[in-house]
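2024-03-11 09:14:02 DEBUG pipeline.ingest accepted 1 chain
2024-03-11 09:14:02 DEBUG pipeline.ingest length=262
2024-03-11 09:14:03 DEBUG pipeline.predict start
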Amino acid sequence: SLRNKCTWTSLVPFCSRALLDVEVPSEHHYRLWGNAYCAPPDDAHFGVKTIGWWGMTETITQGIVGSPQLENREMSLGRPSPAYEIKVVDDDGRKTVPGNTGNLLIKGVRGLSMFVEYQGNPEATASSIDENGYFVTGDKITVNEDGCLTFSDRDKDMLKVGGENVAASEVERVIMGVPLAREVAVVSKPDKMLDEVPVAFVLVDGGVANAPPDYADQVLTACQEQLADFKVPREVRLVDEFPRSTIEKIAKNELRAGLEKE
């Protein structure tokens, strides 16, 4: 990158986390990165502006994107792209008001800015498009007053704690603000009274041995100060590594399976 004087690159969160272990050159040419979130805390470390964006294979490119020129809401995805129509609705199809979380629907031009079909699976294609031609993404999005959209979770990553919906990503964002938290995964643990409760696994920067003795308490305190009581993890477990999928995503299914066996 230094040799070729690169000014722009598209990343995934794993890449930026890995780069935290590499010394930042005193001079580099990067001006902009594209990643999962706008203005993450790492920007100050790298000296680069990051714009967030959201897209899927089915959307061809990004349907939500941050602004390269303007200030973006920290840790948001950005705002709807002019190439798409975006709707965020509740489970009954009603428009989600600012401050609330709903289901993300997106509409574009089939065959141009949206996929045409799932090849050989017309049933899956039909079930993914609603009566108004919007693609049902399966993502939960929070609508903010300034028009920015914040990723909440995939449907499968929503916890049901005593009947209350808890987005794992909301809890994870709070914990990522605690010093030494390199990576976080919040998953459900079966509970006799509440059906399931959140448990936080925290990958500590420098390893578990680098964490102060009260580190788990620091994490819980941050959650108690910023989250409703039912969203606060019942346990915080410090780890040196996570189980990974083939694309380096955290294998949350393995973490859940381990909790279910306890």
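2024-03-11 09:14:41 DEBUG pipeline.report The CA atoms of residues 2 and 25 lie 9 Å apart.
2024-03-11 09:14:41 DEBUG pipeline.predict end
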